[in-house]
Amino acid sequence: MSTAGQVTEVKRAVREAVERSRDRVLEISADVQRHPETGFREERSAALVADWFTGMELPFERGLSRTGVKARMTGGGSGPTVAVLGELDALLLPSHPLADPGTGAAHACGHHAQIASMVGAAAGLAAVQEQLDGDVVFFAVPAEESTELAWRRELVRAGELRHLVGKADLIARGAFDDIDMAMLCHTAGEGAPRLSVGDSHNGSVVKQVLFQGRASHAGASPWRGVNALKSATLALAAIDAQRDTFRDEDAVRVNAVLPQGGSAPTAVPDRVEMEVVIRARTVGALREACAAVDRAVRAGAVALGTTATTETTLNYLPHHQDPELVELCRANAETLFGPEKVVRGWHRGASTDMGDLGEVMPVLHPFTAGAVGDAHSPDYQVTDHVTAALEPAVLLAWCVVDLLVDGAAEARRIMDAAGRTDEDGRGRQDRTAAQVRDDYAALRGRFDASYTFDGADTGAGGDAGRVRRGED
Ligand SMILES: [Zn+2]
Ligand SMILES: [Zn+2]
Questions:
Q1: CATH says 203-316+448-469 is which class?
Q2: I need a surface site. Which of 59, 116, 121, 248 has the fewest CB within 10 A?
Q3: In 10 A of CB 435, how many CB atoms?
């Protein structure tokens, strides 16, 4: 196949096949929406996906990072592998009108529509499978959202998970080793353009800080106490004092809460927990903002003479889409929806684990309309499953067609531009999959640390504060 007309014919066949699956695609979107499950617990949703793959006679694996389901469609020729993803998980939002009354889970980020667009794309591409020079993986992935972190930390300690979010865990397990590029289509908020392409997202880091002082009678002998709450409030003030130093273009956000602020006002608080989420647009800005928060924590500890034990975990890497994939998607979206309906995306302050995947392969993450309300709020709901799920199924499948027809020339060109094709042009990455994973782990490792800082230790030279354990 070589002419544009032939590609148009293939795309027409894809669209007709998606249309034939219309009712089932819309039903799976609504079904998953009605049965929300939080990350790493998406058993029912995963079973629906598995049933779909079984019906299509696609070989698949399940139980990846607990609930992931991954099917492979073999192309007529060999070549690179393109993945279409769908995120399985819901948020924890009991006030949402469609929340599960038992668990409080609710699809307030529209991920159910991604599941439908993924299986819809599979239905569409099955009609032209023989004309693709490369495989297509359809992958339902768990736990994009950062919820139930205490439980997830237990799973990490128990060795069941390596990371707190789905794609990071799947990457570490090698579940993306046999995939060369990946795409999904996410729903946007109310009033969003029909489709936006090329949006980027902040990376995010979580710091859990425990300030420990000494309790004493708050009325009779407060001077005997060491007030951990005052350390925490000073640290918060010190964080706020630095906001002017964050550059606009870095989109830094620092948000903190005190999940535990002391037990009773009759005693000097000796144990206070602070949790901080730090976000920024680049790895460098994220590290700088983390260092600023560390200084603020130490300032609070030194001022009162408490100890501050800090555990830092990288949540998501900054997300940047592959520019060539974005262009390919834009062209297809303009054909499907009309050029006036497709806009160039912007930088979003939120975060996604597609940032992690973008570190190991080219990724595409357009946003579609079809929902009302603001994402992650009780009024957010996909109300138009055709716009949110069915049409994105055609869009994603068309992108796959462009990538994999003609000896997968376009996929190879994009991999080459991303520095991932060897000189033989066989679509192998220039690093082995294990090397890519190692580099990714090393990047994560630059953030992950835990240490205790003793604000009361004045040291031999009189310098306040010592890092007692580990490195910062
Ligand atoms: Zn979300
Ligand atoms: Zn989301």
A1: alpha beta
A2: 248
A3: 11
User: For 222-280, how does the pLDDT look when each residue is reduced to its tens digit (9 = 90+)?
Assistant: 999 999 999 999 999 999 999 999 999 999 999 999 999 999 999 999 999 999 999 99
The token pair at 309 is 């034990």
- Cα(186) to ligand 2 centroid in Å equals 7
**Could you identify the residue written with the tokens 């983390």?**
290
Question: 46 near 67, Cβ under 8 Å?
Answer: yes
Segment 95-104 long-range contacts (CB within 8 Å, at least 24 positions apart):
95/378, 96/378, 96/380, 97/378, 97/381, 98/33, 98/34, 98/36, 98/381, 99/36, 100/35, 100/36, 100/37, 103/36, 103/37, 103/38
Residue of 65, 69, 316, 90 lying closest to 200 (CA atoms): 316
User: No. of H helices and E strands in the chain?
Assistant: 14, 22
List every span in the chain annotated with CATH 3.30.70.360. 203-316+448-469
Cα-to-centroid distance, 107 and ligand 2 (Å)? 9
Considering every ligand atom, which ligand is closest to the CA of 87? 2
Given a cut of 70, whether residue 464 has pLDDT beyond it is no
Question: Which tens digits make up the pLDDT trace of 65-102?
Answer: 999 999 999 999 999 999 999 999 999 999 999 999 99
Domain with CATH 3.40.630.10 in the chain: 4-201+319-430
**Ligand 1 centroid to 29 CA: how many Å?**
16
Check: CATH 3.40.630.10 for 4-201+319-430?
A: yes
Q: Is-contact 209 309, C-beta < 8 A?
A: yes
Q: Which ligand approaches the C-alpha of residue 185 most closely?
A: 2
Q: How far apart are CA 146 and CA 399, in angstroms?
A: 29
- The CA 380 to ligand 1 mean position distance, Å, reads 11
Query: Is-contact 398 336, C-beta < 8 A?
Result: yes
Structure tokens at 49: 């996906």
Residue 334 CA to ligand 1 center (angstroms) comes to: 26
**For range 204-214, the mean pLDDT:** 96
CA 392, CA 369: separation in Å to the nearest integer?
A: 10
Work out the pLDDT band at 176, boundaries 50, 70, 90. Answer: very high
Q: How far is the CA of 336 from the centre of ligand 1 (A)?
A: 26
Q: Would you say 452 and 308 are in contact if contact means Cβ atoms under 8 Å apart?
A: yes
